[in-house]
Amino acid sequence: MPAPLSRLQHAVRRALDATAPLWPELAIGQGWLVEAAQILANPDGADRATVEARYAVLLADLQEEAAPSASLQAMAAQFVKVTVSYGPLIFTGYDVADLPRTNNDLEQLFGGLRHQLRRITGQKNAPASLVVCGATRLPAAVASQIHPFTAAELASADLEQWRIVRARGEQRRWPRVLGRRFRQDPDAYLQALEERLIKLSLPP
């Protein structure tokens, strides 16, 4: 064996020997993570209440398993702390069919939409309007892949709800409009702001 590889082998062996007492507890902690991942993956398609109950049993079991060891108790406490920090949001996705469960799944979903928009527009990057209209474009793109909507279904939408969504989009769009106006003619933009401020400061 070449000398560099031999030195590396000896270093790895020394490291494994030095950390050997830690491995049994780390294996137990890894088992908790694997079991949690299996529960949240929900391969049998159980409802939210069932998944939440299974996860609660896991939390109770791991705290019981951790009792004999201070290190395991620390790992279990961190596990529970992170779970509590997310709260019921961990299980909200099980109420909605086909909703991506993890950040990775969501990123793949967003990436697919960006790719689709790049092909449609011919641009190398996703259009800037996606930032403003993403809250409506993304659900529409996903829903239309699952179910082809008819004109009658679109016409039966709640008009009041549509106005609320449109108003929110307008609130996000307006700062971009103002920023564009400032970049096009900063002097005129600042002068208009100054005139408005003067008018507000004058007595009625």
Explained architecture:
This protein is mostly helical and 204 residues long. It folds into 2 domains: 3-95; 108-201, no CATH class. The chain is built from 10 helices and no strands. It is extended, with a radius of gyration of 28 Å.
Q: How many β-strands, per DSSP? A: 0
| Helicity range | over 70%
Largest sheet report: none
Gyration radius from CA atoms, angstroms: 28 Å
Number of structural domains: 2
Succession of helices and strands = HHHHHHHHHH
Distance between the termini: 92 Å
Low-confidence stretches: none
Indicate the proportion of strand residues. under 5%
Short description:
The protein is mainly α and 204 residues long.
What attributes characterize this protein structure?
204 residues; 10 helices; extended; mainly alpha; 0% strand
Q: What order do the helices and strands come in, and which of them pair?
A:
Blueprint lengths: L2 H17 L3 H19 L6 H18 L4 H17 L2 H4 L10 H19 L7 H18 L4 H5 L3 H26 L1 H16 L3
